[in-house]
Design brief:
The protein has one domain (5-153): Purple Acid Phosphatase, chain A, domain 2 (4-Layer Sandwich), CATH 3.60.21.10. Helix content is 3%, strand content 36%. It contains 1 helix and 11 strands; from the N terminus they run αβββββββββββ. It has one helix at residues 5-8; strands spanning 13-17, 23-30, 33-34, 46-50, 70-74, 79-85, 90-97, 103-110, 130-131, 140-141, 149-153. Strands 1, 2, 3, 4, 5 and 11 form a 6-stranded mixed β-sheet that branches. It has a 3-stranded antiparallel β-sheet with strand order 6-7-8, with no helix packed on it. A two-stranded antiparallel sheet has the order 9-10. A hairpin with an 8-residue loop joins strand 9 (130-131) and strand 10.
Amino acid sequence: MAVHPGQVRGVEWWRRGLHIHFYERNAPIANGVADPNELDNPSAPWYILNGAGGHYDGIDTYDEPLPDYVRFIQDTTYGWSRLTFHNCTHMTHEFIVSGNGTVMDTATLYKNHTCGMKPSNYTGTNSTTPISDENGSSALKASSALLVVVVATVLMLSM
């Protein structure tokens, strides 16, 4: 069975725009199966596909049976994604409707991380910049950010 490269490298969250014009939020998935922990410290990467930013001929319609791992799909309006990193263990993703700014979908990922520590494989000598949380704490360091975020955005320009 093929293993997604993100699983090998420890990717915990994956957001990408692609040449499909709708929004889809999935459960964390490994080998096509939803992680039983859902967003509560999953071992599989979390996939969010947002192609609903805009398109010259409108939003695409999702007209196939939904896989079991799909948790939310939206193919009626344009929108964008907002990420909120609450601390080193919690991140919230929101789908925001472009026309009026309302939140149409929201989900929060929890990952059990040790906060404020450099990764065990850290070999750099550069200092890190503190990141403050809601209470003004600077204990969080950039080198121990919430997630390894892989953003693969495909931009296609057509004339």
